[in-house]
Amino acid sequence: MNNLFIRALSPPIGAALLLLAAAPPARTQSAPLPPSSLSSPSLASAPTTNSTPALPSAPDPATPASLPADHPVEPYPTNFFYLPFSRVGIGGDVSPLGIGVKGALLLNTVFDARLMQNFFSYSSGRFELSNVNVNASLRLRSTAAAFDWYPFRSVWRFSAGALFLNGNQIAGTTRIASGTSFKLNGQTFYSADPTKVPGAAPITGSGLLGIHTHNPALTLSGGFGRFIPRSERHWSFPSEFGVAFTGPPTVNLNMDGWACLDQKETQCGNVSDASNPVAIQFNNAVQTRLTKLRQSLNSIQIYPLFSYSAVYSFDIRTPRAPR
């Protein structure tokens, strides 16, 4: 009986065992890893199959073979150290001294030396001033030298020098037409007419205003920009503002001809005749007017200096390497 029951159950049990053998193994839930294990070097360095590969970094810029690897590359280096007398500059400017031509010489990293020549001429032609025909001319001629100091190797500049061979002046000539009246120091005079006064000649004169009492004259100035760049640049455009201690202007006046005290020209005299009463009165009036003019000019002790230059610099010796 028992044997028959076992035989009856054998086929189902065998089929169940076959199903269990073919089923996938059951997953077991593992405990989560502690946070410290996530940051461990072994996990951080473990390769991941899904991560994107890192891009290569950009190469370092190339440096010239003549410069050290840590030297900055600049289009126009400003840290060149030039040997004394290794660079010169030639340029020009326009200033109250006239049209200027200048040369500069590099002395060291903070000092330059300059030599300047200035010139200008102008003639006004004839014009009328208080019924008097006048011709005026301006003549500027001077030579100057200066030493430039750039404190702390900056572009700001302080300069001291001298203005010598100074021939700056304003000249004028006049001719007063016959019978024309004019005033000197409040007095009225008449230029003699040769047709009324035999042997007489109209009044003529010449005057000179000099701007060179102190010769040479000390100059002090300041400005912005180097006349000679301490780099590979060639062009520079420095400015300058200062004064020249030229002293008060000088005034001289020479008169010639015949002067009259009345319009009818009955009281006339040669102004060059020191014994003639009319000449004495005329010359006294001229000297009084000159004295007042000179006193008013005594307050002018300086001459203004300001300019904007264009200078081209170049090497005359090989400088040291940049540093």
Give an account of the 3D structure:
Strands 1, 2, 3, 4, 5, 6, 9, 10, 11, 12, 13, 16 and 17 form a 13-stranded antiparallel sheet that branches. The chain has helices at residues 2-22, 35-38, 41-44, 277-297, and strands at 87-95, 98-106, 111-129, 132-149, 156-164, 169-175, 181-184, 187-191, 204-210, 217-224, 235-236, 239-244, 250-256, 258-260, 268-270, 303-308, 310-315. By secondary structure, it is an alpha+beta fold. It has four helices and 17 strands.
Radius of gyration: 49 Å
Beta fraction: 35-45%
Tally of alpha and pi helices: 4
- Just name the CATH architecture: Beta Barrel
Can you tell me the residue ranges where pLDDT is under 50 for at least 5 consecutive residues?
1-9, 13-23, 26-31, 35-49, 69-76
Distance between the termini: 114 Å
Largest sheet features = 13 strands, antiparallel
Shape: rod-shaped
* Share of helix, binned: 10-25%
- Mean pLDDT over all positions: 82
